[in-house]
Description:
This protein is an alpha/beta fold.
Amino acid sequence: MLSLDKVFDAQTVLKSIIRETNVVRAYGIAPQCELYLKPENLQITGSFKVRGSAYKIALLSEEEKARGVIACSAGNHAQGVALAATKNGIKSLICLPDSAPISKVEATKGFGADVCLVEGCYDDAYNKALELKEREGYTFVHPFDDENVIAGQGTIALEILKDLDNIDAIVVPVGGGGLISGIAYTAKQIRPSVKVYGVQVAGAPSMYNSIRDGEIERLDSVSTIADGIAVKQPGENTYAIVKEYVDEIALVTDDEVSSAILALIEKQKMIAEGAGAAAVAAVMFDKFDLKGKRVVAVVSGGNIDVTSLSRVIDRGLWNSGRSAVLLIELIDKPGQLMEISRIIASLGGNVTGVHYEKGNTESVTGCFLRIELETRDFEHVNEIKKRLRDEGFKIVKEIKK
Length: 401
């Protein structure tokens, strides 16, 4: 059974494998509280997952090691298992959903694992891994619903409590529940007054729904940019631990997660993947009562594909009013674009794109101008729109990305 002794044992075992990530103070992200970040995105594999998988593999018998290990993952657990297995001289096979970012697939191979891509999401990869385990005799390393994996993740709480002696709350992203189970169990054993809050994305609320309804539930589908926590069904062990030790779970949207990723880049110079930024998003958008509190948000991973990061940044800029697109109807005559640019520049906006289109207007001589802008915030966008209207320009609409 899970115990505090087991978590301390995991801390000892992992000393030569993991990087102890020091808590850092965050500024300008959540002014309503004193926010600190636990940057597991800086972990050796770019995610906390190596803690649980490495501890689990360290405890395997020689017979289990000889059979080789198999795991399923959205990408981060895969890298943890691959690294730990390779360090122990064990063969590893990882089943990954074919939607996993290329960067995670290649990193898993780079740590020494064989990869089996499975059509679908994490749960489809899980079923394939179980099938291969039975057929080939591999030892299965579960990504979250295993007491040794949970104990390994609990070492994060030990580090947090060592770094900060008077915190009020820890905010943790939730997928299958292994991370928050380890943190909540450990924190509550050592300091029961600390609140532990869980965060899921609205497109994959499996643990949220299960806790709300009092029984484990399975989602028909999941859809979110936070692929690391896109799990259809929580584990039996993790559900029980979360139910007992976690104070509250809230949902964030993909747009809120995108804004959190952007905030971490700009304010902390820190790269987080969608799952990694979920806890920060919850703090930023006031999902819990944290006013005046000392809070630690776990940034659980930073393994985001570069092309995905570009799209997320664009979305984050849009959702924070940092960029805008206006469709303006004009009379097609010289000087119109110059006048519009003058107005925007006089208010401190920056034109980043222009598209001109004739036809389909009420006037025979009309045209449309699509203007892309760099702005400060939503108030700034509204200021620009008002000035354009005041000077006689017809804004057809603000285009939503």
